[in-house]
Structure formats: structure tokens, C-alpha cells
Design goal:
Length: 81
């Protein structure tokens, strides 16, 4: 895994952490979405970006060749997970 891949993964994890804390605050009743528009707007944008990312990732995984799947599976088993 290259450094760029690790940074991209860390960025997506950061996005998920932000969305998780935002939703947690909403569920716990800490604030209403209209009260904190400066958090609501980025949350909506980041959620949309993450949804697009996941659609593209699933489409790419579905279009992998059988040989690529076998190779990825062998690498995963060699790492132990």
C-alpha cells in the first residue's frame, strides 16, 4: 500500500469520524441541524461525497477480473486477514 493510498484511507476515516460525531450529536439531542448550519452543510456535502466514493468502489470491485480477485484473495490470506 503506497503512502498516497494510506493518506486517502486516513482522509475517508476522518470523514466518517466527523459524520459519526455529527449524527451522534443529533441523536443525543445536543443540537438541531438548523442550529449548527456550519456543521450541517459540510456533513451533507461529505455524506454525498462518501456515497459517490462507495458507489465507485463497489463498481470497480464488481468489474475486477477473476484473476485479479484471486490475486487479491491470495494477498489477503498471506497477511492473515
Amino acid at each position: 500500500m503506497s503512502t498516497q493510498d494510506r493518506l486517502v484511507t486516513a482522509a475517508w476515516l476522518g470523514v466518517l469520524a466527523f459524520l459519526g460525531f455529527y449524527v451522534f450529536g443529533l441523536v443525543m439531542g445536543v443540537y438541531a441541524p438548523g442550529e449548527v448550519l456550519y456543521f450541517t452543510i459540510p456533513a451533507v456535502v461529505l455524506a454525498a461525497l462518501y456515497a459517490v466514493h462507495m458507489v465507485r468502489a463497489r463498481r470497480a470491485a464488481r468489474n475486477m477480473s477473476d484473476e485479479s480477485r484471486r490475486k487479491a484473495r491470495r494477498q489477503s490470506e498471506a497477511r492473515g486477514f
